[in-house]
Design a protein that fits this description.
The complex is a heterodimer of chains A (114) and B (110).
Chain A: E1 5-7, E2 10-13, E3 19-24, E4 31-37, E5 44-50, E6 53-56, E7 65-68, E8 75-79, E9 88-95, E10 104-105, E11 109-113
Parallel strand pairs in A: 2-11
Antiparallel strand pairs in A: 1-3, 3-8, 4-5, 4-9, 5-6, 7-8, 9-10, 9-11
Chain B: E1 4-5, E2 11-14, E3 19-25, E4 33-38, E5 45-50, E6 54-58, E7 61-66, E8 71-76, E9 85-92, E10 98-100, E11 104-109
Parallel strand pairs in B: 2-11
Antiparallel strand pairs in B: 1-3, 3-8, 4-5, 4-9, 6-7, 7-8, 9-10, 9-11
The chains are: A mainly beta (114), B mainly beta (110).
Chain lengths: 114, 110
């Protein structure tokens, strides 16, 4: 069985460009999470979906960040007008159902803003 | 602000010894606790989950939870150089999101 798949693995963009990061969760997993991890830090929560519903977006740093999961499977995290402080690893995780089940992480997208 | 605290380390132990990693959390309402291992440049890998007070053992790993003291620990027996990694403690927050500590870097030397 495939795990959580993220693409691209690496993304370099110039400041001001828009980027889109993709997450394909484990098949059948209801819950999907996005986290941001800065160097030397633990992951920090960005947003959470239950199926296609975005239930919590309290961690998104600004209105430049937008996430969607239109069909309750693949999710996209979009960052508009990127800034240097957006440089980080973006991790996607999924879990099977609504309760506090363990989350399984993808390999992440390392985003570098020049 | 709900917090999870870990000593950043590095924690250095000789091969074959027991490594003890500790974590405290601030939210008394937390119900689920996880330990993830993260190798440099890799994603977090789940190694233990614990939901009730006491010990939970899985191979060389034992997780310990004390909700009264708001304390979670991870013991690694017979530590191997391949165990050298950063260990992240995570606690559930609102809406099932995880709140992570900064991680403890473990070094196991031969």
């Amino acid at each position: 069985g495939a795990g959580v798949s993220q693409s691209p693995r690496y993304k370099v963009a110039k400041r001001g460009q828009d980027v889109a990061l993709r997450c394909d969760p484990i098949s059948g997993h209801v819950s999907l999470f996005w986290y941001q991890q800065a160097l030397g830090q633990g992951p920090e929560f960005l947003t959470y979906f239950q199926n296609e519903a975005q239930l919590d977006k309290s961690g998104l740093p600004s209105d430049r960040f937008f996430a969607e999961r239109p069909e309750g499977s693949v999710s996209t995290l979009k960052i508009q007008r990127t800034q240097q402080e957006d440089s980080a690893v973006y991790l996607c995780a999924s879990s099977p159902n609504y309760s506090n089940q363990p989350q399984h992480f993808g390999d992440g997208t390392r985003l570098s803003i020049l | 602000q709900k917090e999870v605290e870990q000593n950043s380390g590095p924690l250095s132990v000789p091969e074959g010894a027991i490594a003890s990693l500790n974590c405290t959390y601030s939210d008394r309402g937390s119900q689920s606790f996880f330990w993830y291992r993260q190798y440099s440049g890799k994603s977090p890998e789940l190694i233990m989950s614990i939901y009730s007070n006491g010990d939970k053992e899985d191979g060389r790993f034992t997780a310990q939870l004390n909700k009264a003291s708001q304390y979670v620990s991870l013991l690694i027996r017979d530590s191997q150089p391949s165990d050298s990694a950063t260990y992240l403690c995570a606690v559930n927050g609102d809406t099932d999101k995880l709140i992570f500590g900064t991680g403890t870097r473990l070094q196991v030397f031969p």
